[in-house]
């Protein structure tokens, strides 16, 4: 039976995997009981199956997530045009830096230059972001940005070498490199991860967390959602950049199936970690012990180490040596 499955074309394999995950999720959702206050007290905005934060109880997160959704549409449009039109063929090492840096910079500078993030109207009332009243170092957007920047740096500096060693991946475009990883990828990862965490995973996990009654069934659904979403996110990124010829795998079939599971290890840790990060920013529970920038850096590094260990456990299980042969700085192409 396993031989028959392994003989299937990659399209059939991935369809079977994704349809199975979706069917399990639908079944698990059907077994849940709605939370008692889901209709009466929750004013969160639903984008099924996503749930934005409650604008009354979590205005900082609400405004930041709305901003992230708008910016996601912008960067995907620009990035998509570059890939579809093959404009990347005209980019030099500096060109890649300019494109990726130009798209990452608005997210990085938003907490400093535009702390309002957004001022959406909910039920004829403008939601004002409390971040505009906070010092820079206390803003939710500042801490979220530092978390994602730290995570993106760790991921590129360390985890990329696991892809080089385990999946035989390689970047071949012209690039300025740090530790044999294109610096442009450090920047691109920031806006990718902002969309993955701030928009998609936060919304989906919040939907599960806030919609259903507490209990072991909801806990199982919550964690299976994390596993399924991690795999799906990793697969979709691999699929959508497959037409970009300068990021290659030795075996693309393995990259889609097992590689998506390997990449998904990142998100098994970071999706729930970021969802619960600074969860009391807008309530009185944080007055005694607010989350500081040092806390933020420490949390991101802690999550990063957990991911690194999981990746290395998989590498050791497969018996593949880890080779890190880069130099501090180099330019290729």
Model description:
Helices cover 62% and strands 7% of the residues. The chain contains 9 helices and 9 strands. The model has no long low-confidence stretch (mean pLDDT 91). The chain has 333 residues and is mainly alpha-helical. It is globular and about 55 Å long. Helix 4 crosses helix 6, helix 5 (140-166) runs antiparallel to helix 8 (252-276) and helix 6 (183-211) runs antiparallel to helix 7 (216-240).
State Rg.
21 Å
> How would you sum up the major sheet?
3 strands, antiparallel
Mean pLDDT rating: 91
Distance between the termini: 46 Å
Q: How would you describe the shape?
A: globular
Encode the helix/strand succession as letters. HHEEHHEEHEEEHHEHHE
- Describe the strand arrangement of the main beta sheet, using strand numbers: 7-6-9
- Percentage beta strand: 5-15%
| Total DSSP helices | 9
In the predicted model, the low-confidence regions spanning at least 5 consecutive residues are none
Care to count the β-strands?
Answer: 9
The helicity comes to 55-70%
Secondary-structure-derived class: mainly alpha
What characteristics describe this protein?
333 residues; two-stranded antiparallel ribbon; mainly alpha; globular
Q: What is this structure, in a nutshell?
A:
The protein has 333 residues and is mainly α. The protein has helices at 2-6, 10-30, 59-85, 93-113, 140-166, 183-211, 216-240, 252-276, 293-318; strands spanning 46-47, 50-51, 121-122, 125-126, 170-171, 175-178, 181-182, 247-248, 329-332. 62% of the residues lie in helices and 7% in strands.
């Amino acid at each position: 039976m396993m031989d028959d499955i392994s003989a299937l074309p990659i399209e059939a394999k991935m369809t079977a995997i994704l349809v199975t995950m979706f069917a399990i999720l639908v079944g698990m959702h059907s077994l849940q009981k709605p939370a008692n206050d889901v209709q009466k007290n929750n004013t969160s905005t639903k984008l099924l199956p996503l749930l934005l934060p409650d604008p009354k109880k979590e205005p900082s997160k609400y405004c930041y997530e709305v901003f992230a959704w708008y910016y996601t549409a912008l960067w995907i449009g620009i990035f998509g045009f570059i890939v579809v039109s093959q404009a990347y063929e005209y980019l030099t090492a500096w060109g890649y830096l300019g494109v990726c840096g130009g798209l990452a910079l608005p997210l990085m500078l938003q907490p400093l230059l535009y702390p309002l993030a957004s001022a959406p109207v909910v039920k004829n009332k403008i939601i004002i972001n409390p971040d505009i009243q906070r010092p820079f170092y206390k803003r939710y957007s500042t801490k979220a940005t530092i978390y994602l920047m730290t995570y993106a740096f760790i991921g590129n500096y360390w985890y990329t070498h696991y892809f080089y060693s385990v999946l035989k991946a390689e970047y071949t475009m012209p690039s300025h490199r740090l530790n044999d990883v294109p610096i442009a990828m450090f920047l691109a990862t920031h806006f990718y991860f902002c969309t993955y965490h701030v928009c998609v995973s936060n919304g989906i996990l919040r939907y599960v967390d806030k919609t259903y009654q507490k209990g072991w069934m909801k806990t199982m659904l919550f964690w299976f959602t994390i596993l399924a979403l991690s795999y799906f996110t990793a697969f979709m990124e691999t699929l959508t950049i497959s037409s970009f010829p300068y990021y290659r795998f030795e075996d693309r079939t393995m990259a889609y199936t097992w590689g998506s599971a390997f990449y998904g290890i990142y998100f098994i840790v970071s999706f729930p970690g970021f969802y619960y990060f600074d969860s009391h920013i807008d309530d009185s529970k944080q007055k005694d012990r607010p989350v500081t920038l040092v806390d933020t850096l420490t949390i991101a590094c802690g999550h990063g180490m957990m991911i690194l260990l999981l990746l290395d456990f998989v590498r050791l299980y497969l018996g593949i040596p880890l080779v890190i042969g880069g130099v501090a700085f180099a330019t290729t192409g």
